[in-house]
């Protein structure tokens, strides 16, 4: 299976979450053993040559991809969550959304100086969530070696928001 063939597993749902928006639903992909395996393998291969200590997954669909990537890389898994979801001391980063703001949090000891990290998420759209995750991780002293996405929505310009970081995407929608 080639990365382009993974697109057949992506369900396009029109007008979600708002009119004119096409939601890229990955549940058919992760529900198919061959498709899920290929997706995880593709993300793992994008880490080739990097020494990775931790894999950061962004809530919620990023968790689904990041945890098996961490397993394959022999790295730890770090959940970055919405506010109030983590049970211990956290650091937080507020970021802008189209209709307001949101907050991401990580445990304050999730990563530290000297850790090399990849951040994994399902979709790169505007880049705001990934940028907030970068600020959290770098604020704890770790190095973000790369950002790895299953899907990139090129027209939304997220890559430019993350300039200066290595970015890889398995699939790109133009």
Unreliable segments (pLDDT under 50, ≥5 consecutive)?
Answer: none
How large is the count of helical segments?
A: 5
Provide the CATH topology. Answer: Rossmann fold
Order of the strands making up the biggest sheet = 5-6-4-3-7-8-9
Identify the quaternary structure here.
single chain
Main beta sheet: strand number and arrangement?
7 strands, mixed
Which CATH class applies here? Answer: Alpha Beta
Radius of gyration: 15 Å
Run of helices and strands: EEHHEHEEEEHEHE
Helix content: 25-40%
CATH architectural designation: 3-Layer(aba) Sandwich
Structure write-up:
This protein has 174 residues and is an alpha/beta fold. It has a single domain, classed as Rossmann fold. Helix content is 27%, strand content 36%. It is built from 5 helices and 9 strands; from the N terminus they run ββααβαββββαβαβ. The strands form 2 sheets. The chain has a 7-stranded mixed sheet, sandwiched between helices. It is globular. The protein starts with 10 loop residues before the first strand and ends with a strand. 37% of the residues are buried.
